[in-house]
Amino acid sequence: MPEPSSVRLNHVERGAGTPVLALHGWGPDHRLVLGCLEPVFADRAGYRRLYPDLPGMGKTPAPVSFASSDDLLAAVQDFVDDTIGDAPFLLVGESYGGYLARALTRSRPGQVLGLALICPVGTKLEHAERTVPEHQVLRPDPALLDSLDDELAELVRDNVVVHTPETVRRFREEILTGVDLLDTEAIARIRLRWELTEDPEGDAPFDRPALVLTGRQDGAVGYLDQFALLPHYPRATFAAVDVAGHNLQIDQPELFNALMWNWLDRVAAES
Question: Along the 271 residues of the chain, how does pLDDT read in single tens digits?
Fold first, then answer.
C-alpha cells in the first residue's frame, strides 16, 4: 500500500446518492467540471457529486514533496478512500483530469461503474507528440470581442470556438477564475515528471459504459489520439464533435448534456 498523501483536497460536494467523482484539467480548478456537470444532474436525483481541486490548483496546496503526476494520483486515491471508501462510483475526467481518471479506473476496476472523458489527453501525453488540428473560431463575433479588454479578448480568441456572451461568461467564470489561483511553481515542478509510472491502459480492458468526448477544433489535445484508446474501452461511445474546441462543454452545451445523459442511462441500466 502506498503511503497516504500529506494533502487533503479542497472540494465542493452537491447532492446525495451514488458518488460521482469529477476531475478537472491542468490549470483550472473544480469550477470547470462543476459548471458543466451540474446542469446534467439538475433533473436527476440520486447522485452525490464530488468536485475536488487537484494539488497546486484551486485551493488545494502542493507541498514541495509533490513533484510528479504520481503524487497527484496518490492524492486523488486518498481522496476516494476518505470520501467514497469502497462504494461503487462514477468517474468523470476532463483533459489532464481524464489522464488521472483512466489511471484511477485501472486501479479500481471493480469499483468504477462508468467512465466519462471530456476532451481528455489521448495516447500522447506531451504536447509536441500529440496529433492536433489548428484551433479555429467557427462562430466569431467581432463586436463581442471588441467589447472585451484586450487580454480577455485574446484568451477567448485562442480558446473558444463559439463566441457568444454566454460562452465568454462561462469561459471567464468556470476556467479563468481557477487559472488565477494556480501555483505556478508547484505546477512547473510536477510538470517535469508528468508521465505516470504505470500506463493507465496497462491492465485488462475496462468493460463498463464509457464516454469519450472530443472536439474537432481542439488545438490542445485533438481527437485522433483519443480514438486510439477505444480498444481498451469496448463499451465506449466516442464523439468527435464539430464546432467544438478544448472547451467542448462550453462550445456545444446541448450536445454535451445529451451525450452525458445517455452515458448516465447506460450506467444506470447495468448498476
Answer: 345 556 899 999 999 999 999 999 999 999 999 999 999 999 999 999 999 999 999 999 999 999 999 999 999 999 999 999 999 999 999 999 999 999 999 999 999 999 999 999 999 999 999 999 988 999 999 999 999 999 999 999 999 999 999 999 999 999 999 999 999 999 999 999 999 999 999 999 999 999 999 999 999 999 999 999 999 999 999 999 999 999 999 999 999 999 999 999 999 999 7
Measure the CA–CA gap between 91 and 210, rounded to whole angstroms: 9
CA 5 to chain centre: 22
Residue 236 falls in which region: left (phi positive, over 0), alpha (psi -120 to 50) or beta: beta
**Separation between Cα atoms, residue 192 and residue 124, nearest integer Å:** 16
DSSP designation for 63: -
Give the number of other CB atoms < 10 A from CB of residue 85: 10
Interatomic CA distance for residues 228 and 253, integer angstroms: 25
pTM: 0.95
CA 211 – CA 48 distance, rounded (Å): 19
**Polymer length in residues for the chain:** 271
Q: Which has the closest alpha carbon to 51: 70, 29, 74, 66?
A: 29
Q: Where are the alpha helices (DSSP H) in 21-60?
A: 31-41
